[in-house]
Design brief:
Blueprint (H helix, E strand, L loop, with lengths): L6 E6 L4 H12 L4 E8 L3 H11 L3 E4 L2 H6 L10 E4 L1 H7 L5 E4 L7 H9 L3 E4 L2 H18 L2 E4 L2 H9 L8 E8 L17 H5 L8 H9 L1 H13 L7 E5 L5 E7 L4 E5 L5 H8 L14 H4 L13 H12 L3 H17 L7 H12 L8 H24 L1
Parallel strand pairs: 1-2, 1-5, 2-3, 3-4, 5-6, 6-7, 8-9
Antiparallel strand pairs: 8-10, 10-11
Helix pairs in contact: 1-11, 4-5, 5-6, 6-10, 6-14, 9-14, 10-13, 14-15, 14-16, 15-16
This protein binds nicotinamide-adenine-dinucleotide (NAD) and magnesium ion.
EC number: 1.1.1.267
Pfam families: DXP_redisom_C, DXP_reductoisom, DXPR_C
Protein name: 1-deoxy-D-xylulose 5-phosphate reductoisomerase
Length: about 400
């Protein structure tokens, strides 16, 4: 039988921003890709529309009750409808390429399933690497899986990193846009609203990562992500604010050469790189016109403005359970901020306190790591209650 010329794609977190960009590329290249499975958390309507359009073999809704209540939406879909966490883990091990685009630590176990099936994984879900980097990378080696970074900075580095001569790399610098509050008066930070925080100047993203960009926790998480993805020491990692988001990160070599990937700030570019790696495809993204940019600026980050970045850098240096705790506390705090339960400036305070109250002993297994994650979430919730009583 001739091999199927189409690459089959499973998208975990298909209803989000990364899911949108991935499906946009698949729509543009029907002669190259087909959808094997799509998963979503709660957005049943959007998933039903995508199921009808792409007719994948399987779709999964994480929320079992919503699935039961909305069966009627899927009458024009011919494939298999599944629900629950276990079903997401099952489809994570199916397809030629897995796009891991669930937000938060909720994506960890599906990523692990994909790794253990030896898959090629286009990894957007940075929180999985932040909370379980050592364990995931051990499994990647053991099962011969391939991680291709979707995150624009890591994708940029991946494109110019000489893996065969990694000792010749002297520094990785992640570029950051600085988010919407780069020049806002620091005295007004406590009155920042969720609406202001999610309005990112350059990128159109999900609400959690948008808040992380506004606090610059995102860049901190990305430093931890870079530490696991590339053979590099902690002190060889750096961050620079570059508000135009044209240079997506740089790799400095010991001879003084600096290599970088440039492009319009459009996630279709790094996603396409992963989808058809090592080939390059048309994306429809705006081509870069250097003359139009006129000026590129670079600023060192200020920790008074962005304390979350410092907390993440410290967590990376401390190691052990610190990144797991940092990530869990941040997820809970960001959720509370988005629901207007705490102030923008409380996010870093809550994360810092949670780190102080937590044990830093390194997780010994995934089960142990999930316990640490859960404990940090409980600690953060009680810190939120304490904040409200102040
Ligand atoms: P989003 O909020 O737009 O979408 C998240 C997706 O995950 C949705 O499909 C949602 O249904 C699913 N999901 C959420 N919680 C879930 C749960 N508990 N169980 C199962 N599914 C769940 O987020 P996004 O902006 O697409 O980001 C996805 C990931 O990619 C994040 O880790 C983010 O940091 C990373 N990332 C995003 C961008 C971007 O431009 N959006 C860039 C770089 C990295
Ligand atoms: Mg990024």
């Amino acid at each position: 039988m001739p091999a199927d010329p189409l690459k089959s794609i499973t998208i975990l977190g298909a209803t989000g921003s990364i899911g949108d960009s991935t499906l946009n590329l698949i729509r543009q290249h029907p002669q190259k890709f087909k959808v094997h499975a799509l998963t979503a958390h709660k957005n049943v309507r959007k998933l039903a529309a995508l199921a009808e359009e792409f007719q994948p073999e399987k779709i999964v809704i994480a929320d079992e009750t919503l699935f039961q209540e909305n069966q009627a939406l899927f009458t024009r879909y011919k494939g298999e409808c599944l629900s629950g966490k276990e079903a997401i883990k099952k489809v994570a091990a199916e397809g030629d390429l897995i796009v891991a685009a669930i937000v938060g630590a909720a994506g960890l176990e599906p990523v692990l399933e994909a790794v253990r099936a030896g898959k090629v994984i286009a990894l957007a879900n940075k929180e999985a690497l932040v909370c379980a980097g050592d364990l995931i990378m051990d499994e990647v080696k053991a099962y011969g899986a391939t991680l291709l970074p979707v995150d624009s900075e890591h994708n940029a580095i991946y494109q110019v990193f000489d893996f065969e001569r990694s000792e010749s790399v002297s520094k990785l610098t992640l570029t950051a846009s600085g988010g919407p509050f780069l020049t806002r008066d620091l005295n007004s930070f406590s009155s920042i609203t969720p609406e202001e925080a999610v309005a990112h100047p350059n990128w159109d993203m999900g609400s959690k990562i948008s808040v992380d960009s506004a606090t610059m926790m995102n860049k901190g998480l990305e430093l931890i992500e870079a530490y696991h993805l590339f053979p590099i020491e902690v002190d060889q990692l750096d961050v620079i604010i570059h508000p135009q988001s044209v240079i997506h990160s740089t790799v400095e070599y010991r001879d003084g050469s600096v290599l970088a990937q440039l492009g319009s700030p459009d996630m279709k570019i790094p996603i396409s790189y992963c989808l058809d790696y090592p080939n390059r495809i048309e994306t429809g993204a705006k081509k870069l016109d250097l003359a139009e940019i006129v000026q590129m600026t670079f600023i060192k980050p200020c920790y008074d403005r962005f304390p979350c970045l410092k907390l993440a850098m410290d967590a990376l240096k401390i190691g052990g359970a610190a990144p797991t705790v940092l990530n869990a506390a941040n997820e809970v705090a960001v959720e509370a901020f988005l629901h207007k339960k705490i102030k923008f400036t409380d996010i870093s305070k809550v994360v810092e306190k949670c780190l102080e109250r937590s044990d830093m002993k390194a997780p010994q297994s995934i089960a142990n790591l999930l316990e640490i994650d859960e404990k940090a979430r409980i600690t953060t919730s009680s810190l939120l209650t304490e904040l409200r009583m102040d």
